[in-house]
């Protein structure tokens, strides 16, 4: 199975500009290809992973991916997928984000010598306005640009000249990469089709209609219930461990619906067809074991955060399941309880009932006493049944945290001031 057949099996191809031409070119020799990401923030989220996982598949198949960090295009703002104008960031913020995303990409793909990371600011910064208008603007027909879906969808609300010209800048990226590195394929999300075809048109106008360049987009990722993939109650799932802890990241994948897990195994892991089909059978026969979800969580967490993060996430999950939270390290507590109800308390010893009120575990002292007497309260892994018990907030977790569990699953966290 070649790379394109593998992508088809995985359901990872939405549109192609020339199906037969790309297949023939790839069969003839390894190609260079590219995908870009704009530095609109200082971290990618899991939605960004999809095209870059495809880039990694090409790299493992012997091809040469170029990852473009949009230092230039990120200063302008891509109108794709938006109903209103983007708020322009300062040059300093863009540069900060460029550095953060570059480091993130190096962590993900740095071990593969086939993969190259470049910044489109490097080949646009010296272009003058007159150069831009004479050499490239003249080659773009406004009527054609207006018919591109990304622009047409914005006409009723309005679109600035700045964002209108975005597709020219992205097209120029493709031209430059083709001339400089013989890049023949651009990959992007479904909303990038207009920008990708603009680049192909530009290359054909300047380098000839017989120039072999291609475009490929990936499908829009939706969950089985029709909602957008990658969002949680807490917001986006980030690749930056400071924004989404490795434990939370692991749990996101582990908690996927049976209806979605095989699709995600195809998209987000490098497992082969045989293993994924075995996991699909396990979902049908023994869904309660969640073997497919566990494998998904292991593979994606390992790719993004490394093997040690997988071990750590599984250790945290085991300790939480058994209730042995006292064995967690301070760092593991910060990961495991990042999204539970959290309060701040003083470091002085406090009566258990007063602690439950202060941490908003219970709304009244009467209820707090009943919970303690009924054995419903566990503090730092130890069940407390005496309403006169005194709790020392600095006795565990380097004096930084107190963990309260009410019942079997409801957790509360206090940070000690």
Automatic annotation (TrEMBL):
<feature type="binding site">
    <location>
        <position position="34"/>
    </location>
    <ligand>
        <name>L-tyrosine</name>
    </ligand>
</feature>
<comment type="subunit">
    <text>Homodimer.</text>
</comment>
<keyword id="KW-0436">Ligase</keyword>
<dbReference type="InterPro" id="IPR024107">
    <property type="entry name" value="Tyr-tRNA-ligase_bac_1"/>
</dbReference>
<feature type="binding site">
    <location>
        <position position="231"/>
    </location>
    <ligand>
        <name>ATP</name>
    </ligand>
</feature>
<dbReference type="InterPro" id="IPR002307">
    <property type="entry name" value="Tyr-tRNA-ligase"/>
</dbReference>
<keyword id="KW-0648">Protein biosynthesis</keyword>
<dbReference type="GO" id="GO:0004831">
    <property type="term" value="F:tyrosine-tRNA ligase activity"/>
</dbReference>
<keyword id="KW-0547">Nucleotide-binding</keyword>
<dbReference type="Pfam" id="PF22421">
    <property type="entry name" value="SYY_C-terminal"/>
</dbReference>
<dbReference type="Pfam" id="PF00579">
    <property type="entry name" value="tRNA-synt_1b"/>
</dbReference>
<keyword id="KW-0963">Cytoplasm</keyword>
<feature type="short sequence motif" description="'KMSKS' region">
    <location>
        <begin position="228"/>
        <end position="232"/>
    </location>
</feature>
<feature type="coiled-coil region">
    <location>
        <begin position="84"/>
        <end position="111"/>
    </location>
</feature>
<feature type="binding site">
    <location>
        <position position="170"/>
    </location>
    <ligand>
        <name>L-tyrosine</name>
    </ligand>
</feature>
<feature type="domain" description="Tyrosine--tRNA ligase SYY-like C-terminal">
    <location>
        <begin position="332"/>
        <end position="413"/>
    </location>
</feature>
<keyword id="KW-0067">ATP-binding</keyword>
<keyword id="KW-0030">Aminoacyl-tRNA synthetase</keyword>
<dbReference type="InterPro" id="IPR054608">
    <property type="entry name" value="SYY-like_C"/>
</dbReference>
<keyword id="KW-0694">RNA-binding</keyword>
<dbReference type="InterPro" id="IPR024088">
    <property type="entry name" value="Tyr-tRNA-ligase_bac-type"/>
</dbReference>
<protein>
    <recommendedName>
        <fullName>Tyrosine--tRNA ligase</fullName>
        <ecNumber>6.1.1.1</ecNumber>
    </recommendedName>
</protein>
<feature type="binding site">
    <location>
        <position position="166"/>
    </location>
    <ligand>
        <name>L-tyrosine</name>
    </ligand>
</feature>
<dbReference type="InterPro" id="IPR001412">
    <property type="entry name" value="aa-tRNA-synth_I_CS"/>
</dbReference>
<dbReference type="InterPro" id="IPR002305">
    <property type="entry name" value="aa-tRNA-synth_Ic"/>
</dbReference>
<comment type="similarity">
    <text>Belongs to the class-I aminoacyl-tRNA synthetase family. TyrS type 1 subfamily.</text>
</comment>
<keyword id="KW-0175">Coiled coil</keyword>
<comment type="function">
    <text>Catalyzes the attachment of tyrosine to tRNA(Tyr) in a two-step reaction: tyrosine is first activated by ATP to form Tyr-AMP and then transferred to the acceptor end of tRNA(Tyr).</text>
</comment>
<dbReference type="InterPro" id="IPR036986">
    <property type="entry name" value="S4_RNA-bd_sf"/>
</dbReference>
<dbReference type="InterPro" id="IPR014729">
    <property type="entry name" value="Rossmann-like_a/b/a_fold"/>
</dbReference>
<feature type="short sequence motif" description="'HIGH' region">
    <location>
        <begin position="39"/>
        <end position="48"/>
    </location>
</feature>
